[in-house]
Specification:
It is built from 16 helices and six strands. The chain is mainly alpha-helical and 375 residues long. Among the domains are: 63-119, no CATH class; 163-199 and 267-364, no CATH class. A two-stranded antiparallel sheet has the order 1-2. A two-stranded antiparallel ribbon has the order 3-6. A two-stranded antiparallel sheet has the order 4-5. β1 (130-131) and β2 form a beta hairpin. The termini are far apart.
């Protein structure tokens, strides 16, 4: 056989080998694909059943894509929330050995929460209730998936104790994502002799986090890719202006709007909680209370401790000092960081947040007027 004939024969065999799986895939698609679905349900050019490309566009500007630090938070248990691979492995095998790490980690993404190729649709990997660090059970439907990572990693009642100043870092305590605890009204450091309540959000919103943070904005172009959907953000930039997504809120709060000139809701607080002489939107009142801990003037309660937690400009002060901080200061730092890291400025659970802030301020400053503390 000539060299040309051999080359032609090899090429023909290669075509047949490559065509076989493609033909089989086509047959599967026509038959319904995995789980009875077709590739077109996600990948169709127009009107897909699952608008994968639109969801991905919002994901690209999300904290899940841009934050999370999977490149180094890929071991010692951190990988469960900071990497796609660690999260999926935790669902299949439970929490990893602290010595394990992900060799080639990636950011949490589409397939972290969904499993389309295994099931043929975009169902969530799990919506089971989540037991928080302090033993409380968090159960808000689809929002349970979010709570698997967005919960405090410490138990406040155990973590708060006198300790050397060098042991306290910005990531100490509830650790960056305590939203589930705040929504549930639990696991801040609660002071003896005080009673604590909660807002109704955890009881009246069927799918919790998902219902509010992933609701798509209405109107042309959906306002911005930075808001709603898989961006998971309630606030974002629209034509350079800070804008709130009210799409989910109006179902309960019919008169809700964005406060003029501010990226906060126009829900006016029941009291002048920050004692500045006027009733303002809830988030402004909560910010006023937080400013009593750390502010731009350098006069905050956590800026006046010895050694101070924060510098006059508001940046955290790392220290090697072995001076033992009293429990009351440690508790104040824990609560301040928890409410700051929650990020909602009280919207997730107004009553609980203001009660905690009032009691914490009073613990550091006994002269603070607590007569307006919500009951």
């Amino acid at each position: 056989m000539s060299r040309a004939s051999c080359s032609f024969l090899l090429a023909a065999v290669a075509v047949l080998v490559l065509a076989a799986p493609l033909q089989a895939a086509g047959q599967r698609e026509r038959a319904g694909g995995a789980g009875g679905q077709s590739c077109g349900d996600c990948h169709a050019s127009t009107n897909p059943r699952y608008p994968f490309l639109g969801a991905k566009a919002r994901y690209e500007v999300s904290g899940h894509k841009l934050l999370g630090n999977s490149a180094y938070a890929n071991g010692e248990g951190c990988q469960v929330c900071h990497t796609n691979e660690g999260f999926i492995a935790s669902l299949e095998k439970g929490n990893p050995d602290p010595k394990e790490f992900v060799a080639d980690p990636s950011q949490p993404g589409c397939f972290t929460c969904h499993e389309p190729h295994e099931t043929g649709d975009f169902r969530l990997r799990t919506v089971s209730p989540v037991t928080l660090a302090n033993g409380k059970v968090f159960d808000v439907g689809d929002g349970n998936l979010c709570a698997r990572c967005h919960h405090a990693t410490a138990v406040a009642a155990q973590a708060v104790t006198p300790m050397p100043a060098s042991k306290v870092a910005p990531f100490w305590g509830s650790h960056h994502g305590p939203q589930a605890d705040i929504v549930a009204g639990t696991n801040a450091f609660e002071f003896a002799g005080k009673t604590y309540g909660s807002s109704a959000h955890k009881d009246v919103i069927n799918d919790g986090c998902v219902s509010c943070h992933m609701s798509l904005p209405t109107g042309r172009a959906g306002l911005s890719l930075e808001i709603g959907g898989h961006s998971c953000e309630v606030a974002g930039k629209v034509h350079g202006m800070d804008t709130l997504n009210l799409a989910a809120c109006v179902s309960c709060h019919r008169d809700i709007r964005q406060a003029p000139g501010k990226a906060v809701f126009n829900i006016i607080a029941q009291e002048d909680y920050d004692l500045n002489g006027r009733k303002e939107p809830v988030q402004v009142e909560v910010q006023g209370l937080l400013d009593r801990f750390v502010n731009k003037d350098g006069t905050g309660l956590l800026q006046k401790t010895n050694p101070p937690f924060y510098a006059k400009d508001g940046t955290f002060l790392w220290t090697r000092s072995e001076v033992v901080r009293p429990a009351v200061e440690v508790a104040a730092f824990y609560n301040y960081r928890m409410i700051m890291d929650d990020g909602s400025l009280g919207i997730h659970n107004t009553k609980y947040v203001i009660q905690i802030l009032y009691d914490t301020i009073q613990a550091l400053d006994p002269s603070f007027d607590v007569s307006r503390r919500p009951q």
